[in-house]
Design brief:
The structure holds two protein chains of two kinds.
Chain A lengths: L3 E4 L2 E4 L5 E7 L4 E9 L5 E8 L5 E2 L8 E7 L2 E6 L8 E9 L6 E3 L3 E5 L1
Parallel strand pairs in A: 2-11
Antiparallel strand pairs in A: 1-3, 3-8, 4-5, 4-9, 5-6, 7-8, 9-10, 9-11
Chain B lengths: L2 E3 L3 E5 L4 E8 L6 E6 L6 E6 L3 E5 L2 E6 L4 E6 L8 E8 L5 E3 L3 E6 L1
Parallel strand pairs in B: 2-11
Antiparallel strand pairs in B: 1-3, 3-8, 4-5, 4-9, 6-7, 7-8, 9-10, 9-11
Classes of the chains: A mainly beta, B mainly beta.
Chain lengths: 116, 109
């Protein structure tokens, strides 16, 4: 099946620094990628929808300037957590939809961010 | 508003059968997904239903009734490795996924 690679899988950073997480579709082209955040024992919360070549659409309550999303190509989307704080510590997951839109979403492995 | 309901936790015995229910109320419907998620890992796709009826894939089956806003995931011949959270998600008319909170399935020997 289709593969989505997310990197890094774990990152620890100091408060105030920025962290970039990459999401790549390895064997298909993804016109749309989704970024989720998951809190412990909670369901996935959609943060934003990323469309190739255009600005991301953010969900209500998600700060655009804090969570920068770039979808520069059909196989790569990045999420940058700017000026990270301990409350930003979480599990971030991306998913991608094949441009052929078969309906299925393919998930990355997730990135666990810990901000000290 | 949009809402997905599924039980918080279920317990079953190894080798048995368990059914995890999901009811939904969404603005439009473009399919229902079931995902399995082990602790600390990303979700893994299990099934996709867009038409009424039962879809079988090995030990896992998923059922959908659009008129009732209802789905279930059926797991047969339970194995210890099936202990995980099972997430129900519905794609609405805008092709956004609405997620349930997940059902934590505990398998006992």
């Amino acid at each position: 099946g289709a593969v989505v690679s997310q990197h890094p899988s774990r990152v620890i950073c100091k408060s105030g620094t920025s962290v970039k997480i990459e999401c790549r579709s390895l064997d298909f082209q993804a016109t749309t990628m989704f970024w989720y955040r998951q809190f412990p024992k909670k369901s996935l919360m959609l943060m934003a929808t990323s469309n190739e070549g255009s600005k991301a659409t953010y969900e209500q309550g998600v700060e655009k300037d804090k969570f920068l999303i770039n979808h520069a190509s059909l196989t790569l989307s990045t999420l940058t957590v700017t000026s990270a704080h301990p409350e930003d510590s979480s599990f971030y997951i991306c998913s991608a939809r094949d441009r052929r839109d078969t309906g299925e979403l393919f998930f990355g492995e997730g990135s666990r961010l810990t901000v000290l | 508003g949009q809402n997905i309901d599924q039980p918080t936790e279920m317990t079953a015995t190894e080798g048995a059968i368990v059914q995890i229910n999901c009811t939904y109320q969404t603005s439009g419907f473009n399919g229902l997904f079931w995902y399995q998620q082990h602790a600390g890992e990303a979700p893994t796709f299990l099934s996709y239903n867009v038409l009424d009826g039962l879809e079988e894939k090995g030990r896992f089956s998923s059922f959908l009734s659009r008129s009732k806003g209802y789905s279930y995931l059926l797991l047969k011949e339970l194995q210890m490795k099936d202990s995980a959270s099972y997430l129900c998600a519905v794609m609405d008319s805008n092709y956004q996924l609405i997620w349930g909170a997940g059902t934590k399935l505990i398998i006992k020997p």
